[in-house]
Design a protein that fits this description.
Order of helices and strands: HHHHEHEEHEEHEEEHHEEEHH
Number of strands: 11
Largest sheet: 8 strands, mixed
Strand order of the largest sheet: 2-3-1-5-4-9-10-11
Strand content: 15-25%
Structural class: alpha+beta
Length: 369
Amino acid sequence: MSGEEIIFDPSFREKFFERVEQVQSQLSDESVFQDQKVFVELSKEHSRLVEITNAFMECDRIDLELKSVQQMIETSSSDESMKSFLEEELQFLTKKREDETRLLELLLVPPDPLDDLNTIVEIRAGTGGDEAALFVADCARMYQLYAAEKKWKIETLSATPSSLGGFKEYIFEVTGKSVYRTFRHESGTHRVQRVPVTEAQGRLHTSAVTIAVLIPDDPSAQKLEIDEKDLKIQTCRASGAGGQHVNKTDSAVRITHIPSGIVCYCQEERSQHRNRDKAMRLLKAKLSEKISSEKSAEVAALRASQVGSGDRSERIRTYNFPQNRLTDHRIKMTLYSLDQVMNGGLEPISSALIRWHGKNKCSKSKNFP
C-alpha cells in the first residue's frame, strides 16, 4: 500500500480523529494545567493535529471539486470551448491535489525529540583537490541561503580556506525549528560533476565532498564530562583574511582531546575566549557522536532504516552541472533544477526525504504516528 493510500485509508483516518478528540478532551480538563510539562506537550501535539486536520479537509474539498469538474466535462461534450476550459481546470486541481497530498504526508511524519535541536554541519573536501574545495564553498553558500529562507540562524564555527576561494573544511551551526529534522538527511558523500575553472580543455571532472551532521545539544552529550586533563589547548595567530587583528593577537584556538585524538580548531572570532567556546562546542558534539556510534547499535540501525546508513563514505547525492541535474540516490529522485537548488532551493529534496521517512513508518505500522 502506498503512502497516499495509507493516509486516506478509512481506518487510518478513524485513528487520527480519535486522537484529535482525545487531545482536545485532555486540554479541556483543568487538571492538565497542574503539570506544565504535560500541558506544553499536549499543546504542541494539538497544534500539529490542527495543521493535519486542515490538510485533510483541504484534500477533501479539492476531491469534491475534481469530481464536480469531471462530471461537467462528461455533460459538456458538445461545447468545445467549455470543455477546453474545464480540462484546464481539471489539470489545475489535479496538480493542487498532488501538492496538498505531499504537504499532508510531510505533516504526518512523526515528530522526533531531536527535531528542533541545534545542528552542526561539517563539510570537508574529498577527492578532487581545488575543485572539491570550491564545491565545499558552494555547498556552504547553498545551506546558508536555504537557512535564510527558513529563517534559521547560522553561525560559522570553523573555516579552513584553500586556493581559488574554496575551503578545505567548513563547519557551521544551525539554530531554528526543525533544523535537525532536515539536516540529518544531508550526512554522506555529495558528488559533483562539472568542468572545473582550472580545466583549460573543458573536460568534465568528478569531485566529492563529505558532510557530517552532529548535535551539540544531544541529551547524551549533556551527560558527557570532559576532563580538562585530557585536553591539549593551543593558541596561535589566525591565518587568512580577517583584518588587522589576524597578525597581532593569538586569537585562534586548537583543542586536542588526547584520549580520542579528536582535534577542533577555530579562528573565526577576534576573541580567544569565543574561539575556545566554539571549539569546545564542536568537540563535545564530535565526542558525543563518537560515543553514540560506538555504543548504540540500535541508533545506527534506526538511521540506516531511515535514509541509508548516514555514513560519510556513502554516496547519497550527485550534482551534475552540465545537465542542470541533481539526483538523490537514496530515494531515486532527480530534479532538473540544480541552479535553483544551489541558490538555496533545497525544499523539494528535503521535503521528499522527510516524507519518504514518514511513509516508511506509516507503511510499517499503519497507525497514526
